[in-house]
C-alpha cells in the first residue's frame, strides 16, 4: 500500500523546520504568560495527514515553523515526525533539563547521562458508532548515568527532577481540555467537549505564506530529520492502513533516547515502535536565560506542538473514516506551563493549566457534523487523553 497523498511539505519549497525570523511582521499575538512558560500554536491542515504550525513562546519571544506527518499506518507521506513524537521529545528534553539543573544545585557531578523514555497509548472502540476513545498509560523512564551520588541520593535527585518538570502539571492532575468551534467562519456552540467560555480567537487567515526562514539553511536541515525510513508493510500489526480501521483495540508505543552533544545541545532519537513508523532525530535547546544557546526549539515548544498536531490528526482521520467532507481545519492552541522547578529555580513541582483550543472547520456538512468532529477529535486524541489522565513516570536507574 502506498500513500495517496501529495507531499505538500516538500512541494512548498520551504525547509520543513526552521526558526521564523520575521514573526513580529505577522500580526500574530502570543498568549498571555500565566505561569512562566506559555506557548501559542497556530496550526493548519495541508492534507489529511500533513500539518504545519507556527509555535510561539510568550517567555522567549521565539517562534518556530514545525510540521507533522504520518507514516504508512495512516496512509501518510512520512515527510515529518508523527504528532506523538513531539510530546515524547519535549518530555524527555524537559526531564534532562531538570536532572542537570538539580544536580548542579546539589553539587552532584554528572559525568555521563542518557535518558530512554517510553510512552504508551491505547485506542479502543468504533469510530462509526462513536465509541472510539484514546487513552494514555504510565511512562517508563530509564536513566543511564555516571555520577557522584550514592543510590539514595541519586534516587531522590531523579524523583524530584521528574516532579520539577513543567509537564508534571499536566500529568499529576486530571485536566479537561477546553474548546471553541468555528464553522465556515462563524462561531457555533460546542457539543460534548468543555467550552472555553470566551469568544473564539480571530482566525488569522493564511499567515504561513508570509513567514521567512532566513538564510541559515544548514541549521534548518539539522533541527529535525528522518534518519531511518520505515518499510511499507501490508497485512501486519501496525502496518499500512491499520490506524484507519473503523474499529480498533490496540496499543501505541513511542520511544526516545536523549543525550547531550559536545556543544551542549540535546540530541533526541525518536522511534515509533507501534504502529510501525520511521526514526527521526530532533535537536532541543533552551534559551540563554536557562543555560542554553537558543540553537533549537525548547522542551515546551515541542510538547505544545505535539498536542495540537495529534488533535488535528484525529479530526482528519475521523472525517476520512466516516467519509464526510472536511475541506480544511485549523487550530489556535494555548498551553500554560510553569518554569521548571530546578531549571527555573522555583523549587516547586511543575504546574500546568488545561489546554485551550480554538477549532476552525471548513465543511459543506451540517453543524451537527462539525460538533461531532470536534467531540471525536477530543475523544480519540492520545494527547488530550494524556491531559485528562492522572499519570506517573516510572524511573529505572542503570549506572554506567
Structure in words:
The protein is of the alpha+beta class and 400 residues long. It has helices at residues 8-11, 83-105, 151-164, 168-171, 217-223, 299-322, 367-380, 382-387; strands at residues 18-19, 36-45, 51-57, 63-68, 110-126, 133-136, 139-147, 178-183, 186-188, 194-195, 224-228, 247-260, 266-274, 279-284, 328-338, 356-362, 393-399. Strands 1, 2, 3, 4, 8, 9, 10, 15 and 16 form a nine-stranded mixed sheet that branches. Strands 5, 6, 7, 11, 12, 13, 14 and 17 form an eight-stranded mixed sheet that branches. Helix 2 (83-105) packs across helix 3 and helix 6 (299-322) crosses helix 7. It is globular. The mean pLDDT is 95.
Amino acid at each position: 500500500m502506498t500513500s495517496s497523498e501529495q507531499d505538500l511539505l516538500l512541494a512548498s519549497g520551504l525547509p520543513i523546520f526552521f526558526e521564523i525570523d520575521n514573526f513580529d511582521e505577522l500580526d500574530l499575538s502570543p498568549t498571555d504568560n500565566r505561569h512562566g512558560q506559555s506557548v501559542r500554536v497556530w496550526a493548519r491542515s495541508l492534507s489529511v495527514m500533513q500539518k504545519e504550525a507556527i509555535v510561539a513562546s510568550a517567555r522567549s519571544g521565539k517562534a518556530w515553523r514545525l510540521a507533522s506527518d504520518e507514516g504508512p499506518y495512516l496512509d501518510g507521506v512520512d515527510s515529518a515526525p508523527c504528532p506523538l513524537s513531539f510530546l515524547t521529545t519535549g518530555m524527555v528534553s524537559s526531564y534532562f533539563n531538570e536532572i542537570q539543573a538539580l544536580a548542579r544545585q546539589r553539587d552532584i557531578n554528572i559525568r555521563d547521562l542518557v535518558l530512554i523514555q517510553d510512552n504508551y497509548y491505547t485506542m479502543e472502540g468504533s469510530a462509526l458508532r462513536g465509541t472510539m476513545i484514546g487513552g494514555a498509560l504510565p511512562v517508563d523512564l530509564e536513566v543511564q548515568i555516571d555520577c557522584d551520588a550514592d543510590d539514595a541520593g541519586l534516587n531522590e535527585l531523579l524523583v524530584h527532577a521528574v516532579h520539577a518538570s513543567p509537564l508534571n502539571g499536566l500529568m499529576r492532575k486530571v485536566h479537561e481540555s477546553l474548546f471553541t468551534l468555528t464553522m465556515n467562519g462563524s462561531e457555533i456552540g460546542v457539543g460534548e467537549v468543555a467550552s472555553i467560555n470566551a469568544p473564539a480567537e480571530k482566525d488569522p487567515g493564511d499567515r504561513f505564506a508570509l513567514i521567512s526562514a532566513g538564510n541559515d539553511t544548514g541549521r534548518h536541515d539539522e533541527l529535525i530529520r528522518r534518519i531511518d525510513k520505515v518499510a511499507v508493510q501490508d497485512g501486519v500489526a501496525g502496518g499500512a492502513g491499520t490506524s484507519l480501521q473503523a474499529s480498533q483495540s490496540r496499543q501505541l508505543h513511542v520511544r526516545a533516547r536523549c543525550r547531550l552533544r559536545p556543544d551542549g545541545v540535546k540530541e533526541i532519537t525518536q522511534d515509533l515502535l507501534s504502529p510501525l513508523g520511521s526514526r527521526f532525530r530532533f535537536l532541543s535547546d533552551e534559551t540563554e536565560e536557562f543555560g542554553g544557546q537558543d540553537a533549537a526549539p525548547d522542551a515546551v515548544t515541542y510538547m505544545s506542538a505535539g498536542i495540537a498536531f495529534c488533535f488535528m490528526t484525529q479530526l482528519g482521520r475521523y472525517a476520512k473514516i466516516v467519509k464526510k467532507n472536511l475541506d480544511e481545519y485549523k487550530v489556535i492552541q494555548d498551553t500554560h506551563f510553569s518554569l521548571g522547578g530546578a531549571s527555573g529555580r522555583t523549587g516547586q513541582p511543575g504546574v500546568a493549566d488545561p489546554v485551550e483550543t480554538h477549532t476552525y472547520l471548513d465543511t459543506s456538512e451540517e453543524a451537527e457534523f462539525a460538533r461531532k468532529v470536534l467531540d471525536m477529535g477530543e475523544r480519540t486524541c492520545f494527547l488530550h487523553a494524556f491531559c485528562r489522565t492522572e499519570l506517573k513516570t516510572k524511573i529505572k536507574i542503570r549506572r554506567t
